TrEMBL record:
This is Zinc finger AN1 and C2H2 domain-containing stress-associated protein 11. It comes from Raphanus sativus. Gene3D superfamilies: AN1-like Zinc finger (4.10.1110.10). PROSITE patterns: ZF_AN1, ZINC_FINGER_C2H2_1, ZINC_FINGER_C2H2_2. InterPro entries: AN1-like_Znf, Znf-C2H2_ZFAND2A/B, Znf_AN1, Znf_C2H2_type.
Length: 253
């Protein structure tokens, strides 16, 4: 066996009728014996430990649960243990019945690809009834206190209208959606008015600062002007005229 250079190269197959030398032998992970290519599987060399780590599961026809068979135990004993301890026939309908869309008169079965959970009511629906108005959703969750304080202007009026129209009955889903929409529109309009008022105040303040910021001063009378051109016009009309009049009176004398 082997060669002079590699005396330990290759091993004989452990099967008695084979004993073939294989230079790339296989070692069984159950019985730890060496086999050739033809006898490497558990079935080919009749491995006594080949089925100890196999997993076999039988579905119970009564409760639709999986029953794992123990290789070291009789399957009939394993089945009797399951029936006496873990078997629950009421679970059969839950496990085998397919889930459907909860909308009345909708027969669509909910699968992995056509199921959408509503963000407001947390209930699974089909694609056709995924929106709130389509499955009579009770409406979105209650908004945060900061959002309520921001919407207090518009929501108060909508609440009064809802109380006067339906004092004894609970508001429907459509009325809740309309109230939410009206309150949002009122809050947006209020925000727009505040922004426009701030813009008008800033423009008026900038205009007043521009009118009061006269930096050009007349050196003769101390009057203030907003530009040099206005100052020159003032000097020519007022002071030059006064100089000419006083110069003429001096020549007469």
């Amino acid at each position: 066996m082997g060669t002079p250079e590699f005396p330990d190269l290759g091993k004989h197959c452990s099967v008695d009728i084979c004993k073939q030398i294989d230079f790339l032998p296989f070692t069984c992970d159950r019985c730890l014996q060496v086999f050739c290519l033809d006898h490497r599987s558990y079935m080919k060399h009749s491995c006594p430990k080949g089925d100890r780590e196999d997993v076999t599961v039988v579905i119970c026809p009564l409760c639709a649960k999986g029953v794992r068979l123990n290789p070291n135990e009789d399957p009939n004993i394993t089945w009797e243990k399951h029936v006496n301890t873990d078997c629950d026939p009421s679970n059969y309908e839950k496990a085998t019945k397919k889930k459907k869309c909860p909308v009345p008169r909708c027969k669509e079965q909910l699968t992995f690809s056509n199921t959408i959970k509503c963000r407001d009511c947390n209930v699974d629906h089909c694609l056709k009834h995924r929106f709130g108005p389509d499955h009579t959703c009770p409406g979105p969750r209650k908004p945060e206190p900061s959002f309520l304080s921001f919407m207090s202007g518009g929501s108060s009026s909508s609440k009064k209208e809802a109380k006067t129209t339906r004092p004894n009955n609970k508001p429907s889903s459509s009325s809740r959606w309309s109230n939410l929409l009206s309150s949002a529109e009122a809050g947006i309009s209020k925000l727009g008015n505040d922004i426009s008022n701030k813009l008008q105040f800033s423009s008026s303040s900038s205009g007043s600062s521009g009118n009061g910021g006269m930096v050009e001063v007349c050196p003769q009378c101390g009057a203030r002007f907003s530009s040099v051109a206005v100052l020159v016009e003032h000097v020519e009309k007022t002071h030059e005229r006064n100089k000419k009049q006083s110069h003429g009176k001096s020549h007469k004398y």
